[in-house]
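Continuing the series of single-chain predictions for the mutant panel. This is the parent chain; the variants come on the following pages.
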Amino acid sequence: MALSQVIERIITPTVEGMGYELVRLTVSGGQRKTLQVMAEPKDGRNMSLDDCSHLSRAISAVLDVEDPIEGAYSLEVSSPGIDRPLTRAKDYERFAGFEAKLETRAPIDGRKRFKGKLLGLEAHNVKIEVEGAPLALPLEEIEKAKLVLTDELIAAHQQAEEQPN
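Parent structure:
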């Protein structure tokens, strides 16, 4: 099992118990590793700096006990941001209607990179409109995906911030 999977298994109960969802976890670096944890509140509100600090302290305490990383490491806890990565199946439904960039593991119809309007998820296929034509990309073939920063995305983000919790 990869180190990132081990760490994810260790910290997920704490993250979820505190009312957050893990969006992405990465481990990088050589001698001194960096553990990047991206999370968001389960209730859909935007992640604040206080949320990041609170979560960082809790994750750090769990990792101090379990000690899955050899040697010194840096822990970074952040929000997904506006132009967030799309890492879970539900992200493709949640952000349908917004522009995204997707990259597949292997070429599909002769290409690996796609940019267009997300149309949701259907039968384990990400639906996206690229250059006016709808495409279905197998979810398991998507290597990387993220939202594109557009005026529409910024407006939706600002509107979400204005909503009372």
